[in-house]
Fold these 3 entries.
Entry 1:
Amino acid sequence: MNSVVQYTSHDQYAIVSIVNGKANAISHQVIEGLNKSLDIAEKEQKVVILTGQPGIFSAGFDLKVMKESPESAKELVTKGSELSLRMLRFPRPIIVACNGHAIAKGAFLLLSADYRIGVEGDYKVGLNEVQIGMTMHHAGVAIAKSRLSEVYLNRSVSNSEIFEPKAAVQAGFLDLIVSEKELLATAKSIAESFAKLHLKAHAETKLKVRKKHLLKIKKAIAKDLKSNIVINP
């Protein structure tokens, strides 16, 4: 797709890889590459496996862009929220093969997928926005409410609690934990299973199940567009 997002098509699924430096930061270029990848996967009617680099799925938004100005932060966060909304209503299953750390927008991508596989190890998963001084945006709250366990919602969003992989399953960020060497093979196996789903039935049922949350996320994005992203010193 571009230099930071790679797309590889297979018989029943497509592998989309984020490759953007040490932190695998979510930049404008990454979001553009992910959207183009989803365009192709939708046209080819492929299950999507979204993955990162060894040890890191993504540490979140590109901090250089976020710190540039309130306007630049707002633009990037809005594009990220729109990507999550698209993923949540994507007509084919999206599996995340989470290679390791998934922080901030990296964790939100987990919450935007249909099935999430993490790896064993000393890895961190969670929403650290409040910890680093960012008041959580409306869409972030709405996305978190749509997928996180009620017990873990405040711990994750308001308190910025970060979890190791097994606890991340309990919280609702992940569905399964495997060893690093089993990650991609497990994702491929699940993708092949999901490929047997009836395309139209899956797409229509997903929208029914998520209808309430999709509407709330869409309204939350509109709210964020009318306000500034607040990053406290």
Entry 2:
Amino acid sequence: MRPLTKIGLGLMALLLLIAAGLVAAYWWPLLPLQTVMQHYPLATRFIMLGLAAIVALIGVIFLLVALLRRTTHRQLILPQKRGQVSVSQQAVENAVTRAVKQQHDVRAVDVQVALNQRDGARAKITADPRSPTDLVALAKAIEATAKQQLTNVLGVPAKHVKVSLKPAT
């Protein structure tokens, strides 16, 4: 998840938690509000309290997602001997797509790469093989090609590569 998205989700979660607290404080019978609440039935208060609890739960879930989800980047900055190299996500995806198409008998290849500064790259490859024979071996070969392309050619450490093949028939 990108840092700006995490900040936005965190702010939204905090606003939801504040809203839930205000709604719960308004509908729970406090002394100044008790005279106003006498005109409403008891069921209405519990319904509003339940809705406030649901909003608070959604706020807590948003806050946990914003805090605990990994941060991904569009560019990965790799330190080199003479400085640093910036590798974009789209360049990595295009290079892996070209390598898989050149070395294997597939029609369409879709590569999605998530770049993480600490872990390197995680790739998810979906391909349409031209022939339906020995898909397991083809998947392993595509995975090896993608790892080799990421690690040796691009210099991006490959943590995990997942290959999905769509059968031709």
Entry 3:
Amino acid sequence: MRTSSTIRTRGTVKRTTRAAAALAAGALALSLTACGGDDDNGSGDSGDKGGGGKQPGASVTLPKLDGESLSVAAVWTGTEQKNFKQVLTEFEKRTGAKVTFVPAQDPIINFLGSKIAGGAPPDVAMLPQPGAIKQAVDKGWAKPLGAEATKELGENYSPGWQDIGKVGGKQYGVYYKAANKSLIWYNAKVFENAGAAEPKTWDELLNTAQMVYDSGVTPFSVGGADGWTLTDWFENVYLSQAGPEKYDQLAKHEIKWTDPSVKEALTTLAEIWGKKDFVAGGASGALQTEFPASVTQTFTGGDQPKAGMVYEGDFAQVNIGETKAEVGTDAKVFPFPAVGDTAPVVSGGDAAVILKDSKAAQALATWLASPDAAAIQAKLGGFLSPNKSVDTSVYPNEVQKKIAEALLAAGDDFRFDMSDQAPQAFGGTPGKGEWKTLQDFLKNPKDVAGAQAKLEADAAAAYGG
């Protein structure tokens, strides 16, 4: 899984201001600790199977596809996969097509390469990185969106979210799923027992962590077995501390990873990663903890969990839902604190990309660009849509609703996940590149210079010098 002030991806630059970033962070902070309920997981009017056209109550027109079959590949597992299948089921009802979900593995580009080499590519793939979309286009795998999908995208998405799905000026991706990756979730009872308040700055976060530690609970849970969680930590610190211009430059490898700004960010991270007993299980324990477990162990065990806080995006709610904790009451959230002048707002997402151009594949892309599709999964929780036509009232609780409203209020004033913009060999491959080097740095946070040198060597190789 890959979720703060502008989008800048290959060839696309959107202007931003510190004021806009601050506005987005401020909007996010509002009412994040409230919680409401909505148990209606229905998908609305589905119409007769194979009916085609625009169903009653629907916002999108789909063709009749009786007898057509297609497949969708994604790395999603567990509840996320289960919920997405409900979206596919509704597409089947409205068109008469049969859709098969194909479980993929990271890195998905390698997975797709093997499928294509074997002559059995999926019709559509959900790609979690703009860099992966570009690779799919460069390899000749990806097909441009047709007129209907492009029209649906244009009606429902801001220019920035459209632009990150473009390569060479052509639209290839529909960013169906977004993520706000500038959040820290916490066990409310642990904070209450420690007398801790939600921090707004990095120094306050360190003080809060010490209070939690002094109360007898390890402050942080870190899912270090998944290297992408560590890149997300770095990106929030770096964006806030170094600023948006440096962030853009590092994302495009216009400055080196040996730059002093990277040294400063890694040194700042070491204030938590290198602090004895601040990370559950220590470095070795964190490196054996996958992201889902990093969340669940924060919200199990009552007021004596393995950790009091866990950093990650809005999608952590899926995993919180696997515990007995209630979001907004037992599990609360605050924006990633400001390390520099402005709190970071980092986003990520997953885009639908067509690999086999057909009427059915184009229809599915059109469906995924519609508010009808997004609303189905939004109701189920643990999901955030960049589709501005989705009524935020469909989200199942006030926490998720406010996160969604903050994302939409930011418009194009956010920055996309840096590692997701990089070539996959550097920013998106387990055991390699940035993921591996930051895992090594978690193990030895004193070796800042060594981490910088390795990051630069791997980046230079991936970016081509």
